[in-house]
Write a structure and sequence with these properties.
The complex is a heterodimer. In chain A, 67% of the residues lie in helices and 7% in strands. Chain A has helices at residues 2-7, 24-42, 44-79, 94-105, 118-128, 159-170, 182-224, 226-234, 239-273, 277-280, 294-321, and strands at residues 83-88, 110-116, 146-152, 177-179. Chain A has a 4-stranded antiparallel sheet with strand order 2-3-1-4. The two termini of chain A are 34 Å apart. Chain B is 34% helix and 26% strand. In chain B, helix 3 packs across helix 4 (111-125), helix 3 (96-106) packs parallel to helix 5 (140-152) and helix 5 (140-152) packs parallel to helix 6 (170-185). The chains are: A alpha+beta, B alpha/beta. Chains A and B meet through helix 1, helix 2 and helix 8 of A and helix 2, helix 3 and helix 4 of B.
């Protein structure tokens, strides 16, 4: 303050010490935000390149996620076919049915139990042989066994769990003949594990590549503006004061890039993928591919924002420290 | 205002850029640092605005020992030092006004005050009509005046200039020199590193000559044998 008073005595007009606009948390945030927006406006080309890179990188990741999520959904619906059937050589009475039902329900891993009578079995058999009904001439329902069809909970559908489930089932008195398509379950689970491993590996490589590309793009944009960092530092800006607008810029770039990526994915989905069922889906019951669940979209937005922030932070650390 | 005690600085272990420098510059003084290329002028200035720390010795600026100053305090010391470079170091994406206002933004001044003070300094430099142009559209002399406005807008206690007239014609050199003198009259301590003989000759100020990282001669203003030195 003394310096200012002293200067007022000189011939050159002096100004009173102004109130600080950056005082207080809100004042600082408002300044940093306006600085970040101005920086984007003043460096349009650099920002378009960065946002474009983030958009394309995240679009590739989101397309991968879309395919992966749909494959998982398909696998989930296939796994519902993992079923254990208990055969009986006689028709069960209603009390017998309910006794078996309650004993089977008590076995851990049981989802639903359905009784298939001899008549019902015959009906299914006929449906399966539609067009060749002559083969069933003279065959009566009594030759077919009645059965209890047991669907399993999701956690009990792998090879080991099904095998253990069948062992516990066989301990129930009156149950001796149990079938569960052992070979099919084994192959299905092997395929599922392979698909998840492949998906994990591809996804991992993709994420590493995206992080590498985006962080290097941000590094280049900050390198292009290293003069600004130097000048700010020379006029007495603290590290925080220099960093915050760049970090906000990175966050805005990441946010904009991820919003654009999700929007473009939705455009692609609406234009081409939502009715791609005819050649992509493996489940005839479902029509076309499903769009990414909302939590995946939110995850992509968060990942893009985080990518922008981390990319800026690591690049700034390098240039400000040097 | 500025004191260097037995200051040495080595970029690499075997090559020293400055060797055992002892220098005192009082408040309100105007000093020229001169010497051939590689003499250590720029290195000395970089020590003064804390871009380098000495390998040995003490640097005291405005009563603060820079060697003992925590890294976090350096920005606050720099706010009392204005720096001008031969290559101006102006931000090409920003206008003249914004290039000067940045110093006041860093200090957290309000918008209205920044506007008034920046325009006032631009007027002092005679470039107020160019406030909305980007540096690329200015001449070398005008760009140097913008750089000077940025350094002086905060009325710094110390003004450091590294070859400020290197790229300028005689008319512009004289204008820049008169701006330095005006700042000095207002109480700013001015240190100019230059090998521009005309500038030193016209200024009649204290002269410190460096060679191979050492001070080889110091002369008070208007010394009789200045011609033999230059």
């Amino acid at each position: 303050m003394n310096r200012w008073k002293k200067k007022q005595t000189t011939s050159i007009q002096s100004f009173k010490r102004p109130t600080l606009a950056g005082d207080g948390f809100q004042g600082k945030i408002a300044y940093f935000l306006s600085r970040a927006v101005t920086n984007i406006r003043q460096n349009v080309f650099v920002n378009v390149v960065t946002i474009g890179t983030i958009t394309l990188a995240l679009l590739i990741v989101s397309l991968f996620l879309l395919v992966f999520v749909n494959l998982e959904n398909a696998a989930e619906s296939w796994s519902e076919r993992v079923q254990v059937t208990v055969y009986f050589d006689k028709e069960l009475t209603a009390p017998e049915q309910s006794a078996f039902r309650s004993k089977i329900q008590a076995v851990p891993g049981t989802a639903h139990v359905t009784y298939v009578s001899r008549t019902e079995a015959m009906k299914r058999f006929k449906e399966r042989l539609r067009g060749q009904e002559t083969l069933l001439e003279g065959v009566r329902a009594e030759v077919l066994p009645s059965s209890l069809e047991i669907s399993l909970k999701r956690s009990n559908r792998d090879t080991q769990a099904v095998s253990e489930y069948v062992t516990s089932l066989k301990r129930i008195p009156g149950i001796s003949e149990v079938q569960y398509g052992e070979e099919w379950v084994r192959r299905f689970n092997a395929f599922l594990n392979f698909m998840r491993l492949l998906g994990g590996l591809l996804g991992g490589f993709l994420v590493v590549a995206v992080v590498f590309i985006v962080s290097n793009t941000i590094k280049l944009t900050i390198y292009a503006r290293r003069d600004e960092l130097e000048v700010m530092s020379l006029v007495g800006a603290t590290r925080l004061f220099i960093k915050v607008p760049f970090l906000l810029e990175g966050i805005l770039q990441g946010c904009a890039g991820s919003v654009l990526a999700v929007a473009m994915l939705y455009g692609l989905y609406e234009g081409f993928l939502h009715n791609a069922g005819s050649f992509l889906t493996f489940n005839p019951a479902s029509s076309g591919l499903a769009f990414l669940p909302i939590e995946y979209c939110a995850g992509l937005l968060a990942a893009g924002t985080l990518l922008g922030f981390i990319g800026s932070l690591t690049s700034l650390k390098r240039y400000i420290n040097s | 205002m500025i004191q260097l005690h037995n200051v040495s600085l080595a970029y690499q272990q075997d090559a020293s850029a400055l060797n055992n420098i002892n220098l005192k510059i009082g408040k309100g003084e105007f000093v020229f640092l001169t010497g051939p290329s590689g003499a250590g002028k720029t290195t000395l200035l970089r020590l003064l605005y804390c871009a380098l720390t000495p390998t040995r010795g003490q640097v005291v600026i405005d009563s603060q020992n820079v060697s003992r100053l925590p890294q976090s305090q350096i920005p606050y010391l720099r706010r009392s030092i204005g720096v001008v470079f031969q290559d101006f170091k102006l931000l090409q994406s920003r206008t003249v006004f914004e290039n000067v206002a940045i110093t006041l933004e860093v200090l957290g001044w309000g918008r209205a005050d920044i506007g008034k003070k920046t325009m006032h300094v631009l007027k002092q430099m005679g470039i107020e009509s160019k406030y909305n142009l980007v540096p690329q559209r200015l001449s070398g002399g005008e760009q140097q005046r913008v750089a000077l406005a940025r350094a002086l807008v905060n009325d710094p206690k110390i003004l450091l200039a590294d070859e400020p007239t290197g790229n300028l014609d005689d008319a512009n050199k004289n204008q820049i020199l008169s701006i330095f003198k005006e700042a000095n009259v207002r109480g700013t301590t001015v240190v100019v590193a230059t090998h521009d003989r005309r500038l030193i000759y016209n200024a009649h100020k204290r002269l410190v000559t460096l060679n191979k990282g050492e001070i080889v001669e110091q002369m008070e203003k208007e010394a009789d044998n200045i011609d033999s030195i230059l």
